[in-house]
Amino acid sequence: MTDQVVTAILNLDVPGPVISRHLYGHFAEHLGRCIYGGFYVGEDSDIPNAGGIRLDVVEALRALNIPNLRWPGGCFADEYHWMDGIGPKDARPAMVNTHWGNVEENNHFGTHEFMALCELLGAEPYISGNVGSGTVREMSDWVEYLTREGDSPMVRLRKANGREEPWRVRFWGLGNEAWGCGGHMSAEQYAAEARRFGTYSRDHGDNKLYRIAAGANAGDYSWTETLMKQLGGLGCAYRPAAFMQALSLHYYTIPGTWQDKGDATVFDTGDYYRTMAAAARVDELITGHSTIMDCYDPGKNAGLVLDEWGTWWNVEPGTNPGFLYQQNTLRDALVASVHFDIFHRHADRLIMANIAQTVNVLQAMILTDPDSGALVLTPTYHVFEMNKKHQDAASLRIDLPGGVPVREVDSGRLETVSMSASRKDGRVLISLSNLDTAEAADVELDLRGGALTEVSSRILTAGVPQDHNTPEAPGTIAPRVHEQVTATASGLRVHLPVHSFVTVEGRLG
Q: Which residues form the Alpha-L-arabinofuranosidase C-terminal domain (predicted)?
């Protein structure tokens, strides 16, 4: 069988918008074993830890250059009262996590523990405030507690709890999913709340807040338009609002229904392609919401933040249905690689994205075994690692004069070859995915405006898309050297086996 051939023109000397490192952000909610049993094992644990924070998890995430971490939710954020999570641990009141499993939590992981985690990770904190069940004063006090120096009631309280200097916390979410678990509000109701909460979340000293309003669910474009109207009139009348600097968007890849999302590891070819088509839809959604934002903000001063994305499957058999624990296959990794290609193309408006979630929940980077304590890196983790040099790099436009191969999926069409590229510090990184399960592809890279030297390549693939890593076989899917990259008269020829993700790196010559 002849491989499919794709011609791609890459102008190495025409950099585009910078790909914010925050597009590679993460999300840690008080949900299942993400915090307790994932990030946090307690100071008495036999697992090596620092103040209860699991150190092998920290080490693995630092290898990704993790840029930010969103916390404490999610739905949990709008029932979390931060003052219950400060002070001596034995004096902190317990709470019931009504959203996720109806379990009781002891609040041992709170504000100071989260900030210590971010410091260990070298990641910026992104805190979601409680708009649903909290008060304006509660959120205002939290900002003051974390970021103010000098003397004030919250500063004195922070110092009494052992932290003299303020932290730097730029990113603040004004609630979460206000259309759903965050209060079941209308867009107009939430817009008024966002103005209040955003107004009283103050800048202290040189800590300038970047306030992120709780935006739309998937294709709810009217929600985005309602919020954008709060920022100013149509066209060039827009001026940055003091109370809101960005809007969020949530979209999960679910090929089935919310009632039956499909199995994480047992699926057929039709399920696989429906998943890839659902993942590719994020391009349509980002384009739609960005277009509305462009009408009100043509200068692109306001950011779009996709702070929840990823695959969502039925939970693993035998696990708590409220804990959202699922396995992670090569299929999930390809969902991630396609998302990143799309994110890179929208780098002019999309300033942050947060995969859901980092440990033991949904499309996790890391799975920890509660019995053995083993740590497993998922296939999705490896996509993040292979792509990390795109962070803060200038995007490079790729033109496809002959198009790419397409498969019919239900009533739509799926492009089965995806790619993106960037340059930074004299080096170029090219990411390529072949989503086809039956046909390999060869990409002819026509490099213009320069050449690449010291070319190296890696590949992530497996025998079948259902393959995944386990504590017993943690290396089933891992990156390896890819030898099938050859020089041509115009650039490079890259072979993409079936269901594979490949990165090519080189120095600008």
A: 307-500
In the three-class reduction of DSSP (H, G, I as helix; E, B as strand; rest coil), residue 123 is classed as: coil
Catalytic residue among 177, 385, 415, 439: 177
For residue 74, is the peptide bond before it cis, meaning its omega torsion is within 30 degrees of 0?
Answer: yes
Looking at the chain, the number of H-run helices and the number of E-run strands are 9, 26
Using CB atoms within 10 Å of the CB of residue 96, give its burial: 0 to 12 exposed, 13 to 18 middle, 19+ buried: exposed
Per the annotation, the verdict on 164 as an active-site residue is no
Q: What is the pTM of this model?
A: 0.96
Burial group, residue 78, by CB count within 10 angstroms (0-12, 13-18, 19+): buried
The helix (H) or strand (E) run that includes residue 19 is: strand 4-19
> Average pLDDT for residues 132-145, to the nearest whole number?
98
Section 5-26 average pLDDT:
97
Q: Is-catalytic flag, 105?
A: no
Report the residue count for the chain.
509
Angstrom distance (rounded) from CA 206 to CA 301: 20
At residue 66, what is the residue type? Answer: I
Instruction: Tell me the two tokens of residue 264.
Output: 């994480």
- Check residue 266 and report its DSSP letter: -
* Helix orientation angle between 136-147 and 187-200, rounded to the nearest 10 degrees: 40
Q: How far is CA 231 from the centre of its chain?
A: 26
CA-wise closest residue to 194 among 223, 222, 152: 223
* Tens digit of each residue's pLDDT (9 = 90 or more) over 356-402: 999 999 999 999 999 999 999 999 999 999 999 999 999 999 999 99
Ramachandran sector of residue 403 (left: φ over 0; alpha: ψ -120 to 50; beta: rest): left
Over residues 275-315, the pLDDT tens digits come to 999 999 999 999 999 999 999 999 899 999 999 999 999 99
Q: Looking at 308, 316, 454, 483, which residue is catalytic?
A: 308
Two tokens, residue 399: 């033109």
